[in-house]
Amino acid sequence: LAAIAACQSETSSPPFRLVIESSNSTLNGTVLGACHEGAAIEGLCSTSILVTDDPVPATTFHYNVSSSANNDTDTQGSLHYTLVTANFNVTSTMGFSFDPSSNLAIPIISPGGNSATFVSFDSCGALYISDGIDDTTDPPGRDYPGKKLENWYICTTYWSYTYTTLAWKVGTPDVPPQNPTCQKVRVKRVFN
Q1: Contacts of 176 (CB under 8 A, 6+ apart)
Q2: Given this structure, which CATH class describes domain 13-191?
Q3: 8 pLDDT higher than 60
Q4: Which of 2, 66, 70, 93 has its CA 20 to 30 A from that of 101?
C-alpha cells in the first residue's frame, strides 16, 4: 500500500501567475487574482496588475500533477492557490461551479481537492482542458486523444458577489456564451 500511495503523490510546480492574452488592450498582459467569494473561497478575478509587476500572494498559483509524470506539459493536474492569513495558510484547489441556467462555469477556489477540475498547460504555457467525450455525434463516444479546448472568457459573473472573473464556456467552442459581457481570452502560465 505504501508503494501505491507513493505513486499517487502530487508534485507541485514552482509559483506562477496566470496571464490574460486578449484583443482588448485593457485586459491583455494583466494577471488573474484570487478574489473573495466566501469564507476561504475565492474566484479568479480580472485585475489591473500587469505581468511585468512584481508577484503578490493573491496572483500566485501552483500546479500539481502526479509525481509519476516526467514534466507537467500536457499532463492533467490541479490548479492550487494558498490563501495567506494572519494566523494560518489555507491551500485550496480550483474547481468549476455550474448553474444549470447558464452555459458558463465559474472557476472557484476552495479548501481541499475533492472538487478539482483537472486542467493542463501546453508547451507554450496555455491553459486548456482536454475534451473526453464527444456528444456532438450519434452515438456519443470517447474523443481520444481529445482536443485541447481553451473556452476561456472574462465576464461579469455572480457567485456570491458580482465580479469580473474568468469563466469557462461549457460545450463546443463554436457556440458563444449567453452572458453578453463575455470577452474571449487566452490564459497563459508565466513563472514568477
Answers
A1: 169, 182
A2: mainly beta
A3: no
A4: 93
